[in-house]
Write a structure and sequence with these properties.
The protein has helices at residues 12-24, 35-44, 61-70, 86-95, 107-133, 148-160, 177-186, 205-213, 230-233, 249-261, 287-292, 298-304, 321-336, 345-353, 359-373, 385-392, 408-426, 431-438, 442-452, and strands at 4-8, 28-32, 49-53, 76-81, 99-102, 139-140, 143-144, 167-170, 195-199, 238-242, 263-264, 273-274, 278-283, 307-310, 342-343, 377-378. By secondary structure, it is an alpha/beta fold. It folds into 4 domains: 4-114, 3-Layer(aba) Sandwich (Rossmann fold); 134-312, Rossmann fold, CATH 3.40.50.300; 315-406, Orthogonal Bundle (Helicase, Ruva Protein, domain 3), CATH 1.10.8.60; 412-452.
């Protein structure tokens, strides 16, 4: 069955033109001259995509979008307007529109947007089935883990990898955001093309622009030859923009233009040229808070967040620690040219009990250090004191203090965070009930949830 498109516009010529265009593209097309007529059509026929003008007599396109989202419609909505503004574009995207186009528009551009919208809808519908299929998978490419959060990420990667849409990967430092990005690239049709990683926080504004877009000879002091930028090097493949929250406001504007136009201008160059590089961005910053503080552009946020992946901290997927530890032991045994050691039950218990503020990266460092010290079997004595010290303070009646001492403040902080997380897990993440279970106020619970970046909801 063909995908269904509903065109909503009070201009007869626009309705007719889009009807012909999308029928020629192989879609089933229906038209409506008002939002009210569109709602009636949606009530009797499921549509995959709704393309609607914003300004119409009666209900506006924004009103139609709100109604569809309130009714939990599965249709993706694309809004059109001849009266473009940044505010209206941001409002449309915040309300859940798939995209926003300005009249007059390029026909090819709208066709591509509709194609991507249908891809997104298809991915969403297939996601549930894929989660079941991946339910017991321990590895996904180079990613290790079989916890529920990781299974959901595997399913999402499987669905979004074949598309060309931008992806925003969010998570604390050390959670493996670049590995997620590489896996998306490897499982995409672009997998045999270049994967180019850029640390946006490690370059000055001037240097970052030159590295991303390239420069022509003589563009600035030291530019002795024309140089291609990372976008050109990633043409046909994927460019990974790590620490995108560190990008300056001026560079954010230039990146937004490159994403919108799919064209770049080298520094010092007179013209632009097209480039086809899929963008996967990553950050450990709270971009929505940065938007409120006027440090990150809201329109850029919605451009890079067509799809988003939230990578959980290691403390929220403790069942993966044994799998990760063994994976790192295998890796470093190969690198060291040694046989694979065993891991004692006490050492494993210590690893599972620790909060891992440095996440998976810290766990790998601890395993590598332990393997360098151990001979055949990793014991607790081969682990850092902060890891073992945290474990031994957890069992009442068995309190021990290492001879070298430890940081009591750090242990108290870790213990508090552990109990908060456990209470949240027992109460399904609901802060009000978790606070009651621990005998603290809701205000205190909310403060600590934010401080320790725990997964929770208000009610």
């Amino acid at each position: 069955m063909s995908d269904r498109v509903l065109v909503v516009d009070d201009e007869t010529s626009m309705r007719r033109m889009l009807e012909i265009l999308f029928r020629d593209e192989g879609y089933e097309v229906q038209t409506a001259e008002s939002a009210e007529r569109a709602m009636a059509a949606l009530g009797s026929t499921p549509f995959d995509v709704v393309i609607s003008d914003i300004r119409m007599p009666g209900l506006s396109g924004m009103d139609l979008l709100r109604r569809l989202k309130t009714d939990d419609s599965q249709a993706e909505v694309i809004l059109m307007t001849a009266y473009a503004s940044t505010d209206s574009a941001i409002e449309a995207l915040k309300l859940g529109a798939f995209d926003y186009v300005t009249k007059p528009f390029q026909v090819e551009e709208l066709v591509n947007i509709v194609r991507h919208a249908i891809e997104k809808k298809t991915l969403r519908e297939e996601n549930v089935l894929l989660k079941v299929q991946l339910a017991h998978q321990e590895r996904f490419g180079e990613i290790v883990g079989q916890s529920r959060p990781m299974q959901e990420i595997y399913a999402l990667i499987e669905r979004i990898a074949p598309t060309a849409s931008t992806v925003l990967v969010q998570g604390e430092s050390g959670t493996g955001k670049e590995l997620i990005a590489r896996t998306i690239h490897q499982r995409s049709p672009r997998g045999k093309r270049p994967f180019v990683a850029v640390n946006c926080g490690g370059l000055t504004e001037t240097l970052l622009e030159s590295e991303l877009f390239g420069h022509v000879k003589g563009a600035f002091t030291g530019a002795h030859a024309t140089k291609k930028g990372f976008f050109d090097l990633a043409d046909g493949g994927t460019i990974f923009l790590d620490e995108i929250g560190e990008m300056s406001p001026a560079m954010q504007v230039k990146l937004l233009r490159a994403l919108q136009e799919r064209r770049i201008r080298p520094v010092g160059g007179d013209g632009e040229h097209p480039v086809d590089a899929r963008v996967v961005a990553a950050t450990n910053e709270d971009l929505q808070r940065m938007i409120q503080e006027k440090r990150f552009r809201e329109d850029l946020y919605y451009r890079i967040k067509v799809h988003s992946i939230a990578v959980p901290p290691l403390r929220n997927r403790r069942e993966d620690i044994p799998l990760l530890a063994r994976s790192f032991m295998e890796k470093h045994a190969r690198l060291m040219g040694r046989s694979l050691p065993t891991l004692s039950a006490e050492a494993l218990k210590a690893l599972e009990s620790y909060l891992w503020p440095g996440n998976v990266r810290e766990l790998e460092n601890v395993v590598e250090r332990a393997m360098a010290l151990a001979e055949g079997r990793i014991e607790t004595r081969h682990l850092p004191e902060e890891v073992v010290g945290f474990r031994v303070t957890q069992a009442p009646g068995e309190i021990q203090i290492p001879e070298s001492g430890f940081d009591l403040t750090e242990v108290v902080e870790q213990t508090r965070a552990r109990y908060l997380q456990k209470a949240l897990e027992l109460e399904g993440g609901v802060m009000v009930r978790a606070a009651q279970r621990l005998g603290i106020t809701f205000r205190s619970m909310r403060y600590f949830v934010k401080k320790y970046r725990l997964n929770a909801k208000e009610g």
